[in-house]
Amino acid sequence: MLGFLKSLMERKPHVQRIDLTKRFELIGRVGQGSMSKVWRARDSMTGRIVAVKVLDKEKTDKLNNRFKGLEKPLESEIAVSLQHPNIVRTIETGFTLESEEYLIMEFVEGSSLSFYVETQNEVHQKNRLNFMIELGDAIEYFHKEKWIHRDICPRNILITDDHHVKLIDFGLAVPNTPDFRRPGNRTGTANYMAPELIKRKPTDERIDIFSYAVTCYEMWCKKLPWPEGNSLEAVVQHINSPPEPMSTHIPEINPELEKIVLKGLAREPGDRWTHIRDMTDQFRKIAPQVSSLPAPPRSA
Known about the structure:
six-stranded mixed sheet; three-stranded antiparallel sheet; 11 strands; alpha+beta; 18% strand; 2 domains; Phosphorylase Kinase, domain 1; Transferase(Phosphotransferase), domain 1; single chain
């Protein structure tokens, strides 16, 4: 643990406080999460179009207090350390004059994966298996860097206009170390939470594999593996009932693809894929057999 935190400290960016409105022309809002706001902006120093993300100080402090005594890394510290083609690149970090944490990121021309899941358009049908593989590659890199994302879901995934994945939002990420794997902290998006997280059991990177499998299921079926719920009580079904087979929604689905995804949704972590690479290797193996399928029927 000490060695891990020491290496993190060594790559911390220089902390600065700036007036964002003087440095950047904030062109328009492009997103808002529960803990942040994001603008498309022009950097007055370089003329470059970037994404400016400003974290809500009160909500960020509240989250970090859940890990009091553990020195949870800031989102900016994690983001600036990541270098992978399928992870959004963070160019600069610091604090505003109001002591709000900010991140300057590459601006991604594209749409949220949520849009593609909802529309099931031709681009999505043609590319979704490749989207799944690229997302898996991003998560594999994240795990190799000794992080657990804790919030893999379509709204945290962008698809570029040239049809590539960009994983975003590391606000809930924690180091993959014993202290941060201890039971008790249920953070994430309820419908994508692994059973062990809901039951407040010890966790590891396999909670990301579960969330990834839920996302893959939704990319094909336009539905979640269990009836959707807005509370942890509603998603206890992750514990008490098996997921609906993908073939219920798409009878023609490749049976091997269904088997791969359903293994990722296993209730017990030991029954899931051990490493996400094991899962993406299987997707690559069946890729030549998987054809584009019609979108599932819309819900009534």
